[in-house]
Design brief:
By secondary structure, this protein is α/β, with parallel strands linked by helices. Helix content is 44%, strand content 12%. Helix 1 packs across helix 2 and helix 7 runs parallel beside helix 10.
Length: 339
């Protein structure tokens, strides 16, 4: 049995699953309403960050089909909001350079067209749950937010940048951004996700090391660590019980086989899970080529304490919001009558 598990998940994951959990795990906070496993989406069935707008290379229906064929059953469709601020000339040049089909215009017309496509797909599909959102740069939290398109979204994700060539993101940066997201959420009351904070630090460190002629595999655990003492508890206090989620994206898989990076990820993320933080699972796919990458989030999620129990909450919240809105716009459905 163990040989088969090693082949499927790798030795580090097997060791993390077999060894006794740290003492702090005994005090971990259980997510309410997760006791029925059949009511939860397994990790691999969720993708809360799928690009499906201007960069999309094929028809939306075919793009969704591709994800469903690979096992997805709940998806957040989104696009980068800043792309829609380009002039028609800039968009035309960008589409030509990147061989994009030019499906959407910029500005409000493009916002409406994209969101209408997402909503129509959500209504038409019966094989997958579809939600609509935007990905917005973290730097816009320092500026005046673009309200109109943000109010069209069911969920908003904040892009944490690797800041390549500058100081890598760390715990203090994340704490500041989460506080800003909490403020933004007062104006835009929808669930929000912090996109790929941990993998972006590792990307920065890896590129910096390579540029200096150093093998990224020689980075130490202490260099890779995201948090300093006390920061995880502070972050957990901000996030616990909130509608703000931390993303576990496929990018973590790039660094999982580097021992120091893997150890740092577990040390940074697992205590958050044990303190009651909720997560989302995502591919962050932009293209057909990217979608060919194997997607096995259990490989890096489970050792970090990220499970179906603490990563289904966003889906439940989105479904509840959608149901409540439907109650306000349509007659209440009568309960079924059984013969």
């Amino acid at each position: 049995m163990y040989k088969r598990m090693i082949l499927c998940f790798g030795l580090p994951v097997l060791i993390a699953l077999i060894l006794p959990a740290p003492e702090s795990a005994a005090q971990s906070i259980l997510t309410p309403g997760t006791g029925i496993s059949g009511a939860l989406f397994p990790l691999r069935e969720m993708d809360m960050h799928l690009h499906a707008g201007m960069e999309r290379q094929e028809d939306l229906s075919r793009w969704i089909d591709r994800m469903v064929e690979d096992g997805r059953r709940a998806i957040v469709l989104l696009d980068h909001l800043e792309l829609y601020r380009r002039t028609p000339e800039e968009l035309a040049a960008w589409n030509e350079k990147n061989h994009f089909p030019g499906r959407y215009r910029g500005g409000p017309e493009g916002h409406r067209a994209l969101m209408n496509d997402f909503r129509q797909a959500a209504e038409a599909r019966r094989d997958v749950l579809l939600f609509s959102g935007w990905e917005i740069s973290e730097t816009e939290l320092d500026e005046t937010l673009e309200a109109a398109p943000m109010r069209m979204a069911e969920v908003i994700g904040w892009h944490i940048s690797p800041r390549n060539g500058r100081k890598a993101p760390d715990g203090q940066d994340l704490l500041r951004r989460v506080r800003q997201i909490r403020e933004a959420q007062n104006r835009f009351p929808v669930p929000m996700i912090v996109f790929h904070p941990f993998s972006m630090r590792l990307e920065n460190l890896s590129r910096t090391a390579s540029a200096a002629g150093r093998d990224p595999k020689t980075l130490s655990v202490s260099e890779c660590r995201f948090f300093q003492p006390g920061e995880q508890e502070e972050l957990a206090q901000l996030l616990r019980g909130s509608s703000i989620y931390i993303e576990m994206s496929l990018d973590h898989d790039r660094y999982w086989d580097y021992p120091a990076m893997r150890e740092a990820l577990i040390a940074d993320i697992r205590p958050l899970a044990e303190k009651g933080v909720s997560f989302t699972i995502a591919t962050d796919h932009h293209s057909v080529a990217a979608a060919a990458r194997p997607f096995h989030p259990e490989r890096y999620c489970l050792p970090c304490g990220v499970t179906a129990e603490n990563s289904n909450t966003l889906i439940r919240e989105l479904l509840a919001a959608r149901a409540r809105k439907a109650l306000q716009t349509a007659p209440a459905a009568a309960p079924p009558i059984f013969p």
